[in-house]
Amino acid sequence: KPQSSFLFPDFDFKEYLATKADKVNQALSDAVPLQHPTKIYEAMRYSLLAGGKRVRPLLCLAACELVGGEEAAAMPSACAMEMVHTMSLIHDDLPCMDNDDLRRGRPTSHKAFGEETAVLAGDALLTLAFEHIAANTRNVSPERVVRAIVELGSAVGSQGLVAGQIVDIASEGQRVSLDELEYIHVHKTAKLLEAAVVCGAVVGGADDISVERLRKYARCVGLLFQVVDDILDVTKSSEELGKTAGKDLASDKATYPRLMGLDRAKEFAKELVAKATEELSYFDATKAAPLFHLADYIAHRQN
Ligand code: GRG
């Protein structure tokens, strides 16, 4: 564990995580009530309420509260992040993309509801995300609400997640350089984590300098998230070897450990935590503790 000025004996991060995740889950359920036409709402709720770590909403709420905003101001944005994340998983799992059968320990959306409904559930969650921020953000100036919507749009579209996905698909079976791998990861994964933090800060009332510091923090944490994912893929694969061949070893997908070696990938992860933490040092340490612990949690998670 890195020693740090953000460790406070009376801050219980586990308790913080559990409490905030409960609130996010409740808000997500309220945002997507079961109604007519039930088929689409069942599919939306099935994927949205299937568990998941809720990292993006938690980053959004923590950034808002760090800059002095109320949790409630960021809740619609926090939910929107999870709606977009969930829809990207639904579409990523489709037969025309990764063709996966399982997600979050359950059958994927298209396995449970059929392909047409899975595509539409993704479409509905994507559009609802933007509507939800616009319609339900309270006590925040319209200018800040618009900034949050623009931030999310640019993180998700053809300069964001979609860009990462199309480049990833195009690179299949190709030799991928470290720069190309970083492009894919930054766009597929880091952009949405960045939007989560920036939207939280913006609706929380942050000044421009704070927004940019938190953006830098989020870029490091976003890349860290994917580097750790790649490392877990390798370590989990070798643990499972003997039972079934690990996924990463079975495919020839480019990952950080493959391109730079496992030890260097672990070093890189440490450097990213240090850089993220450095950006937080400009803020009050007590208030920045949640974002510090979230970075630490992302670095040390086991799934
Ligand atoms: C977003 C418009 C739009 C289209 C989708 C399919 C696609 C374009 C992009 C794929 C994006 C993708 C699947 C990125 C991987 C993201 C990632 C690291 C997922 C794992 O996230 P966790 O570990 O999962 O936070 P849980 O289940 O905990 O939420």
Automatic annotation (TrEMBL):
<dbReference type="GO" id="GO:0046872">
    <property type="term" value="F:metal ion binding"/>
</dbReference>
<dbReference type="GO" id="GO:0005737">
    <property type="term" value="C:cytoplasm"/>
</dbReference>
<dbReference type="GO" id="GO:0004659">
    <property type="term" value="F:prenyltransferase activity"/>
</dbReference>
<keyword id="KW-0479">Metal-binding</keyword>
<keyword id="KW-0732">Signal</keyword>
<keyword id="KW-0460">Magnesium</keyword>
<protein>
    <submittedName>
        <fullName>Geranylgeranyl pyrophosphate synthase</fullName>
    </submittedName>
</protein>
<keyword id="KW-0414">Isoprene biosynthesis</keyword>
<keyword id="KW-0808">Transferase</keyword>
<comment type="pathway">
    <text>Isoprenoid biosynthesis.</text>
</comment>
<comment type="similarity">
    <text>Belongs to the FPP/GGPP synthase family.</text>
</comment>
<dbReference type="GO" id="GO:0008299">
    <property type="term" value="P:isoprenoid biosynthetic process"/>
</dbReference>
